[in-house]
Design the sequence.
């Protein structure tokens, strides 16, 4: 199931024993970074996600069952299918290294596609042992659409120069 921000904060405070006066960001970093794991466990099974992720994926992943990410289908930026066990989150968990700057495409169950840049980050306990990972998904769908429109317009301008003839009448 999903958690809203207030429920997430309550759970973090409960897990860490922190008081309500502690910064929510500091509590979440302490909680997920050193005590409990994160949105995935060390084996890649989802343990937590928020409503924004659910809306982005277009589905409700099953915690403890869905692995690597909540996306229904994944593709490379060029449209090549990407197995879930080769997605940036899977690579992060397999290598204990962050994966940055990779554009991928996620397909929702209704067939719509979104372009995103994931930012999976491994989470380690105090000894450095991998205990899970967290991920921030940046939706760049609108930016990619705007780039495509600009490319088409630039192509039309290039073609228009080829079609323009300059003729000067004598005299």
Sequence:
């Amino acid at each position: 199931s999903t958690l809203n921000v207030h429920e997430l904060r309550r759970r973090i405070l409960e897990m860490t024993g922190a008081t309500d006066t502690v910064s929510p960001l500091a509590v979440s970093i302490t909680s997920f970074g050193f005590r409990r794991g994160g949105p995935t466990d060390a084996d890649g099974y989802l343990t937590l996600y928020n409503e924004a992720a659910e809306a982005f994926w277009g589905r409700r992943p099953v915690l403890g069952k869905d692995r690597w990410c909540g996306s229904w289908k994944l593709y490379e930026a060029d449209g090549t299918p990407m197995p879930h066990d080769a997605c940036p989150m899977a690579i992060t968990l397999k290598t204990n290294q962050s994966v940055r700057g990779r554009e991928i495409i996620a397909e929702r169950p209704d067939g719509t596609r979104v372009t995103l840049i994931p930012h999976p980050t491994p989470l380690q306990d105090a000894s450095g042992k991998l205990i899970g990972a967290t991920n921030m998904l940046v939706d760049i769908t609108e930016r990619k659409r705007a780039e495509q429109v600009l490319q088409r317009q630039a192509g039309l301008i290039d073609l228009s120069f080829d079609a323009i003839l300059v003729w000067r009448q004598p005299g």
About this structure: Strands lie at 40-41, 73-76, 81-82, 104-107, 113-118, 121-124, 130-134, 137-139. The radius of gyration is 22 Å. The mean pLDDT is 76. The helical segments are 5-16, 24-35, 51-57, 88-95, 141-163.
